[in-house]
Design brief:
Blueprint lengths: L6 H7 L2 H13 L1 E2 L2 E2 L3 H14 L28 H11 L6 H4 L23 H6 L5 H21 L3 E4 L2 E4 L2 E4 L2 E5 L2 E10 L5 H12 L2 H11 L6 E9 L6 H9 L6 H21 L2 E6 L7 E5 L4
Parallel strand pairs: 7-8
Antiparallel strand pairs: 1-2, 3-6, 4-5, 6-7, 9-10
Helix pairs in contact: 4-11, 7-11
Amino acid sequence: MAESSCAAVRGVFCHRSVQASIRWAETALSFHGRPLIDQEARGKYWASLLHQANDGKELSECARVRASHSWVDRNSAALSGRDYVQFHHVRVNTLPTHVRTSRSRRVVGGPPIECRAGCGTTETAAHVIQGCHRTHGGRILRHDAICRIAISSLRQLGWSVRMEPHFHTREGLRKTDAVAVKDQVVKVIDAQVISASSSLDDSHRRKVAKYDTPDIRHQVASEYGVENDNISFSSITISWRGIWSAASAASLCELGLSKCLDSITFRALRGSYMNWLRWNKMTTHISGYTGTNSAGWSFRREGIG
């Protein structure tokens, strides 16, 4: 309005009520003395606050891999409305657990925060989905489904894939998820869905180091008749909230698996939500140590309300 060629419009801009509105808007778009007039600046500001919060800390690596966030807008058409809402519950950690629903009310004698399955730990979404005995079977199903997606894509690209080969090493038995062979090149791959309490890339490197040993290299070279330099190791490393390790995603893209990263993200998020649903419907409860069975625990049935 200030730069308009029309004198009347410029006059309106100079009116005291318009100027008052502009000053109010500038104040409203300033946080701690920092002006956030343009949309990009506001986005970065709110993202930084989210990543500093407990629930948003794991999302700080989200922007590094497109498949970690593309389903939110670009690929949302591939999801049903129900999946889209459920995936957001998982991604932003809003599942109603004891720890979340008791915020601001944690005082002596207040609401309980222990896991309702009797695990002896706090009931967070990470524990429910990643650690509770009720969801052990669901974690296996999620892991196997992710492996099937990757293996199917590799075979479509012409790779010969052997599933779950056993390697006997000095450190003990090692059972990776897949060994892919193509044109005298061998790729050893293992999958993991983790809690991003530490760097996702560090988790990827630890997984690679677990299998990249002289014993396994020697066995792979002997079995497939390839040079040691043609053997490499990688992982499928993604968090339970659908965030990819950038190093893991890059190594999979080198194999031609860039198109299946979105599918793996969908399956990881769906599996995490299904774990939470399964946990909420189950009633098994660890009552304590008995020393009478191999696991050392006795289980009983208990409603969760």
